[in-house]
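To fix ideas, we close by showing one paired sequence and structure record:
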Amino acid sequence: MARVRGYACITTLGDTCTTWSRLLQGESGIRGRQGRVEGYDSLEALLLAAVMQAVQGIDLPPDCGVVVGSSRHYQGAWEEDKWVLPAHLSQVVVQHLGLGGATIALACACATGNWAIIRGLQLLDACGAVVVACADRCLTPLSLAGLQQMGVLADRCHPFSRERRGMVLAEGAAALVLTREGRGVEILGWGCTNDAYHVSSPDPTGAAMAKAIEQALGRSGITPAQVDVISPHATGTIYNDRVEAAVLSRLFPQRPWVCPSKGATGHSLGAAALIEAVLCVLILQEQKIFPAVGVLTPEYDLNLPRQGQSISAQIALNLSFGFGGQNTAVVFRKSE
């Protein structure tokens, strides 16, 4: 059984504690059309800040594995003709922590965060612990121009709302420490599939998306009825929200809580799913959910919280989908 021994996130709302507190109050860290994280002068600094918070007080074994993910990596530097290898980001973490275990560098678009968890779980078979970390500073001219040309950027993120027009890009970072021993929220299982449909649009049938969720539940040994809270991908784009909402309505007729966070934090691409994994951990530990910031006129029959409140929850499901048709799901359970 894998457990989350340590965790941290840095979002447009602040560090872990500040993000959680402001989320419960229904606040947003988005300013204008972008979500910036202040106080970090580089991608490495942002990532290491999350990593060092997550590992604090944990005695990592020398063979501790490391999985580092990012969607855009050093694209900002590349646009300025400063060439840095993408894998340099994982090298920075390994050297800073002085670890000698297996190291993996990932780039899986917006599904990177969940994929980093999945690869971390696989590494646990060979390592005593695994540090999983993701970061993105995606507010670069090319990223903004490209997504604007695709018509998926908006002034505000309105997940699952009739008013939704697109996503809001944001910076962010997160980290988890995974172990087999000790206490902490458990990770029960995962699923991953591909639509094999289109480079940027989800398959309208949602078949592969549903399959990833069913895989995760199957590996976890639970039924859809046992899921209490879902952290959806919920980018606020026209097509993704439509397909995702249909899949959730079909698979979960008992209407568990659906808690989108990108209306408050923005969409940090490769870091988004790992930030949302941290939020799943906090939901289960604190037994609270935050309001669905940005939801104005709900378009779908989903159980979206309109205010922060206490709940009783044992199982949380984290969903993340990415360009290229990627679908991922990870199941968390409250620790005994």
About this structure: The mean pLDDT is 95. The CA atoms of residues 7 and 272 lie 14 Å apart.
